[in-house]
Amino acid sequence: MATTSDFRNGLCLEMNNDLFSIVEFQHVKPGKGGAFVRTKLKNLKTGKVIPHTFNAGVKVDIARVERRPYQYLYKDDTGYIFMHSNTFEQVSIPEEVIDAPAYLKEGQEVEIVFHADTETPLSCELPAYVELLITYAEPGEKGNTATNAMKEATLETGAGIKVPLFVNEGEKIRVDTRSGSYSERVK
Asked: How many Å is the maximal CA-CA distance in the chain?
């Protein structure tokens, strides 16, 4: 059991027979009335973010979660197969649990969050930026850069992404996995 003073980003709570992670919180002390804590909670099973308000000092149940390093191996009909980096045990994860499966390539290091009591995978988090090779891109037109023009490109994982006109096929780029957007060229 914990109180609202123990809140921090990433803390996992058990509420209404579900697991939630705190995305954002703010302690509020209005001039009139009691203090409260306004939060945004992410449901770890569905991925939905909901607002929720707690009265100050309320006791909440904290869920025990563990973050473990894994390496992506391959995808088959059961799901995505990952191998633990230290024990070499393999686990199959469904696609809904993975944050950005379109940017997952073989050998990629990820962090999987497990519910410590039931050993069920809650989420699979990729690094903030991954480096991927462009397998197909239309050639850019020279002199057509008066505006911030973008073109479609295909990555080695099969995902499509918008890139600037100067990026060509065969180049490596850094992709932001949180937004799915082009970040920069890798030299």
From this structure: 64
Q: Sorting pLDDT into bands at 50, 70 and 90, what band is 127?
A: very high
174-to-59, 99, 110, 136, 163 alpha-carbon distances in Å: 43, 17, 16, 16, 11
Exposed / middle / buried, residue 78 (Cβ in 10 Å: 0-12, 13-18, 19+)? exposed
Q: Which residue, of 33, 62, 91, is where some domain finishes?
A: 62
Residue partners of 139: CB distance under 8 A and separation at least 6:
168
Residues in a beta bridge with 21? 12, 42
Of the three residues 125, 144, 159, the one that is the final residue of a domain is: 125
Q: What is the distance between the alpha carbons of residues 61 and 184, in angstroms, rounded to a whole number?
A: 42
| Among candidate residues 171, 176, 175, the one with its CA nearest the CA of residue 187 | 171
Confidence (pLDDT) at 78: 87
* CA–CA distance, 79 with 99 (Å, rounded to integer): 14
Residues 11, 57: Cα–Cα separation, whole Å: 16
Count of domains forming the chain: 3
What gap in Å lies between CA 76 and CA 92, rounded to an integer?
9
Domain that holds residue 29: 2-62
